[in-house]
Each structure stands twice: as C-alpha cells, then as structure tokens.
Amino acid sequence: MTQTIPASAQRHGVSDAAIAPETISGGHLVAKALKAEGVDTVYTLCGGHIIDIYDGCVDEGIEVIDVRHEQVAAHAADGYARITGKPGCAVVTAGPGTSDAVTGVANALRAESPMLLIGGQGALSQHKMGSLQDLPHVDIMTPITKFAATVPDTARTADMVSMAFRECFNGAPGPSFLEIPRDVLDAHVPYEQARLPRPGSYRASTKSAGDPAAVEQLADLIAQSEKPCVLLGNQVWTCRATDVAIEFVRTLNIPAFMNGAGRGTLAPKDPMHFQLARRHAFNEADLIIIVGTPFDFRMAYGRRLSPTAKVVQIDLDYRTVGKNRDIDLGLVGDVGAILEATTAASSGRISPGAAKRKAWIDELRAFETAAYEKRLPRQRSDAMPIDPYRLVHEINEFLTEDSIYIGDGGDIVTFSGQVVQPKSPGHWMDPGPLGTLGVGIPFVMAAKHARPDKEVVALFGDGAFSLTGWDFETLVRFNLPFVGIVGNNSSMNQIRYGQIQKYGENRGRVGNTLGNVKYDQFAKMLGGHGEEVRDPADIAPALQRARESGLPSLINVWVDPEVYAPGTMNQTMYK
Predict the structure, then answer these.
(1) Residues contacting residue 99 through CB under 8 Å, at least 6 positions apart
(2) Are 493 and 568 in contact (CB under 8 A)?
(3) Where does the pLDDT of residue 12 fall: very low under 50, low under 70, confident under 90, or very high at 90 and above?
(4) Cα–Cα distance between 553 and 476 in angstroms, integer?
(5) Which among 263, 343, 410, 494 has a CA at the least distance from the CA of 278?
(6) Is 304 within 8 Å of 281 (Cβ atoms)?
(7) Are residues 474 and 67 in contact, defined by beta-carbon separation less than 8 angstroms?
(8) How far apart, in whole angstroms, are the C-alpha atoms of residue 39 and residue 193?
(9) Which of 526, 298, 558 is CA-nearest to residue 433?
(10) Half-sphere exposure of 19 (CA within 13 A, CB side)
(11) Alpha-carbon distance 56 to 60, whole Å?
(12) pTM of the model
C-alpha cells in the first residue's frame, strides 16, 4: 500500500535511528481512520493514555474540543451524530475517564445514536499488574454498546476503528467502544503492516426497502382505511427521510403525529400536522402506522392503541417490531425507503387526496383546536411566579425556522413537549428514552459547532443544568453562542410530585429541593450573558437580548414550583 510519509517524526525532532520515516503510530492510525469515516471533530478530556490520538488529529485536521467532564464528551459525540448524520467520536482516558463516559454511551444506545467511544488502557505489558487507571472497560461497556473490544496490536488499530464504526450502523444505529492499551497506541509499525481501510470501501448500503410483499400489503391496508394515522418517530430523522415522509402523508392524506427527532418533519401549519389530538386518534383510528418508534414507556408499551385498529410497525431493527404488543403487519428496513415504496405501491389504489378521509381529518382538527384553546389561557398567563406554560409558549413564539431546540430537564421539558414545535426537520433534540438529565450543554456544544449557521435554543431544568453546567465555560472558550433558559423552581419537581402522591405533602420535600441559584450570575462569571426574569412580560425581551448578545447565555426564569406538567402527573410509576 502506497502512503504519504507523515511529517510527525521530523516535526517532533525524533532521530531517524529511533523511528524510521516510513512508520506510523497507533494514535495516528486512529486519526486516519476517523478521517476516513468523515469525522471532523472529537470530544475529549485529556489523559496520558490517549495523547497520541490528539497528535494524529492535528496532522489530519480533526478538531479537538476538550471539555470538563467525560460524560459531556460522550453526550457531545451523541449530539454530533444526531445533527450531522455522521458518527460522533469521544476520546477519554482509562479508568475513571472511561467510567465517567458510561452514562453518555448508555444514552446513545437507547436513543439509537451512532457514536464511538475510544478509551485508554494500561499497557498490555502490564496487564493484570495493577497499572494506573486499569479497569475492565470492555466488560463494563459490552451491555450498553453494539460492539466493544480491545485493540490487540498497533497494525490493527485503524482496521478496528472502522470495524467499530461499521457496527454502529448494523440495524438501528448505536454506540461502539474501543479500548487501546497505551503501548499499542504509542508504538510505531511499518506502513505496509498497517491495515488502513479505504474511505467508502468498508460499508454496505443499509437502505433496505423491506419485504416487497409486505409493502404491497401495507398499500392495501391504506387503501381500505377510512381513519388512518401515522406516528413519525426518531428514525425518520435518523434515515434522513423527511421528504419521503412528507410525500407519504400528503399523497395518501394521512394525519401525522411526530415524536422525538421526528418532530419538525412537518411544519406546524401543515394541514397534515397534528400534536394534541394524538390520544383521540389512537382511540378512534382504524389503521395506525408506527414509524421508527418502539412500544416502550412513551407509548404505554402499545396499550393506548385502539384494540380494533389495524396496527403496522416500521423499524430499522427487527427486534423492535411487535415487541410488547401484537401487530397486524411489521416491516423492517430503512423507514424512508419503505415509506417511499409504499407511496409508489399505493398509486392507482386510492384516489388522489383520499377524499373520503376529509371527515376524519376535520374531526381531528376540531379536537386539536379545542385542546389548544383550552390551554391557551395558561400559555398567556400573567401569574407570578411564572406559569411554566407561559415560559414554553414564549420560547415557541421565539423560535425561527433556523432554531435548533434542545430540551434538558424533567417537569419543565415535559411542559415544552406539549407546546414547543420546531419549524424544520432535525431541529429538535431531547435525551431520548433513557431520560438522561445533563445532555443540554453537550448537545448545545455539538449542535452549534456542527451547524454554526443555526441558532441554538436550549431549555434546562435547574436540576438538569447543574449536572453538566460547568461546561458552559467550554462554550465560551470555543465561542459557541446560544440562547439558554433555565426554568428555575429550585426543585427536582417531577420527582417531588411523585413523592407527594405516594407519601403525602409533609414528605414531599425529601431529597429533591435545590438552592435558589442565580444561574444568570453563573453565566456572567464564566464570560457569558445572563439575565434574571420574574415577570412573564419580561421573558420575550430577555430572549431577544440573549439572541443579540452573540454570547453563550442563560436566562434564569423563576417558575411556579406548585404546578406540574400533565405528563408528570400521568406517569405510571406514580400510580
């Protein structure tokens, strides 16, 4: 294999006798493999086990963003994958560095987000001797990744990085983990011994359109249905299937609901866009199509779907289809390819516009309008302390088509899920089904760095912000401005509600009450923009000033701690 000789040996002042110019180190092989995958950024917290990777990244033009906690690095890699469609990468040191990143990897697993965590490890020559920061990383990571392994030899380094990335995209996406022992990473091998997979030459196409017979069956079900609806979930964005999903619902006249990263597939004013009528639709529909969403707790394990409706599930992962609930038809493959094939197969079976469904769509629209108008007084409330509905209403009004919205919190973000509607696809980010708090700052970091042309708006609960908030300084250091809002009730209010329900008001403040922290002052201390808001009339002007500041910002909004989101009150764990 012909390769360009790296200049690193000369640049480091290492003698030719010590390192022949035609050799390459494990860290530089990692960087070349990342470059081949299209990764342009790694998130990291430094450690002695991993610094040769940094050196390789400098040579390959890969940006290194260093954070203050490894959990942030892992969450940022997850966020990078969601925003770009490319796999994210975090690099952390051995032992506590890797264990600190576990939560971020676990979150990526449940959220089906493709990322690679690279962890350091003690030298193979010191295996089981008690070397610094030695832990059984692969054993720890195996249950929460799609692939976890040790790189056993320097010449295999790039090969195993590409192997890990390939596994990230096997079925539904997810995380992989590689540990690289220090002596493997630092060693040099001759170029001809190293396997360097060629970009674009170690992957198969994953855009399967599923079983053609099943597509034909789905087209028949749609043609026969008078009251269909579709739920467009996370995988619509994962598969970058926005355009075909829009064509599917408009051509076949199917009312659409959206969740997770599927939010924003249809613009809020689209005639097929519905949000508040979902329960009514699931009760009354004769055909329910679930796209890229598992029957997990968010779907009440499938129990809220009408028992008389035909239920169809489309998913990237065979294991998800029919899990927790029987279905009438399951299709496995790329959700965009399947929707596109179904639209084509429906041609000639259904009249353009499916006019017979007008009454059904009008029924849902009337229900949607009534639900919105019932809640509108709360959204416009002038009460003090501020009603959380007023806060999330003002945020929704503030968003533009270029605003990426990030939610990080419990009760306050549950409020936002009912009100905030992103205006473009790929412009909604939440933790996903693991329910991890603390994703906000790292998601901001990834979103703003990957898409500097976009505005980033993040809503935090005060408890959630506290978990990873110190990396606000990283946003200042890397000049990543965003509009941040802390819905501050000095409580972990989602948990507080459950404690009150189970144990009574007199025990409702055990282990869930926080200090009255002025996060606006925290932002200023770290070099950002900060404001405090107690009057609801001041929310919109404060948001606008944060936008105009050109700085990372936090608006500390004091909200009423005695009100709870309906989603909080309906959680089954409190019943």
Answers:
(1) 135, 140
(2) yes
(3) very low
(4) 9
(5) 263
(6) no
(7) yes
(8) 24
(9) 298
(10) 20
(11) 6
(12) 0.93
